[in-house]
Amino acid sequence: MQHNTPMLDNAKPATRSAYFSEEHEMLRAQIRRFVETEIKPHALAWETQGFTPRETLRKMGELGFLGIRYPAEYGGAEMNTLGSVVLAEELGRSTFSGVAITVLVHTDMASVHIFNAGSQSQKDRFMPDIVAGKKIVAVAVTEPGAGSDVKGIRTTARREGDHYVLNGTKMFITNGVHGDLYCVAAKTGVNARPSQSVSMFLVEKGTPGFRVGRALDKHGWRSSDTAELIFEDCRVPAENILGEEGQGFYSIMKNFQNERTVISAMAIGECDAALEITLDWLRDRKAFGAPLWDKQAIRARIATLAGQIEAGRQLVHHAAWMDAQGFDAVKEVSMAKAYCGELVNEVMYACVQFHGGMGFMRESAIERMSRDARVQSIGGGATEVMLEEVAKRIAR
Ligand SMILES: Cc1cc2nc3c(=O)[nH]c(=O)nc-3n(C[C@H](O)[C@H](O)[C@H](O)COP(=O)(O)OP(=O)(O)OC[C@H]3O[C@@H](n4cnc5c(N)ncnc54)[C@H](O)[C@@H]3O)c2cc1C
Questions:
Q1: Which atom of ligand 1 is nearest to the CA of 380?
Q2: What is the pLDDT of residue 204?
Q3: Out of 162, 259, 314, 371, which residue is the most buried by the measure of CB atoms under 10 Å away?
Q4: How many H helices and E strands in the chain?
């Protein structure tokens, strides 16, 4: 018998996965400890207040959790995509996905725009504070009239001398109220081809003409702040453009890969936590003279879901590994996002069902988790859009 990982007689490999190193597992243990001590005891209060305190991000920054894939010169840990997956899975396991998304938007969805497209001076200026959790980042692409269809955005950026003047409204922006830095998509080329008409800009909180319209009240993810943002003749210095003018659509598509990978990984963490919570419940709860866990119909349903979760996990890990190796993983990432976004909802539905009436009560974790899961087949690429990406690629 051959093993990919060399093994001594009777020795086990260092990790239980072909994809992760011991370094990844150490990171996982550290984040899990942080979640238990610094997130879970407080997050119910954050759900009520509608945001995760920036102090929590500061602490995560101090522990190195916000710069997992960034260079050491910015305070980062120089790991690969699988490091981000570890962070997302463990935050997903917290049972508070509002906290998870607050962090993951900062680390893997917004700051990547600065890191991947920013000039050396933009990166030198902002990345150290981002990695330290001193400056919170948001990414603002979606608008009231355009979400899935990025080319349909209507916010404009008009060049005037050594400034761009932004006008438009952004919608559903995570970290929108409490952010410090915003990576904003706007149309620069009114007459250009749609794919070459979008540019990204860095807008700092406090820039005249930029304001938070309102904080949005949500079905789930209640410990994350989500906002409408308004730009009215907002003048930003021309050097605040991120990358080249007209190349924003391509940067958004590139950075979506990261975003979709971590949302998928977060969903797997949520599924794991939901199953654990439900198994505990099923062992305790008695009906018809025996624990619910003894009922064959329930055991079979849970076992089926456990298999699906494992399949989703392996798909996410494989997609992240492909990305880390430098392969084009758009098909695999899209598959993972579509699969995990639907799966997490299926898992929550069953887990609420097996909790009976208690699963419908605000006091149960599974009730919150089922609300949190709903958006995961919508945000960051709706399932239908992801399946279209897959279909295009399997037809080639
Ligand atoms: C809580 C929350 C946080 C968010 N955070 C951010 C953020 O930080 N930054 C940001 O820019 N955006 C953010 N978003 C926006 C999110 O990415 C969009 O909601 C998502 O892309 C869907 O866009 P939409 O809401 O405009 O739906 P639409 O694009 O109008 O689509 C509506 C539905 O139509 C279906 N559909 C769409 N296109 C197709 C198609 N081609 N084929 C078949 N069916 C289709 C899908 O079922 C989809 O859910 C957030 C959204 C939410 C709810």
A1: 17
A2: 98
A3: 259
A4: 12, 10
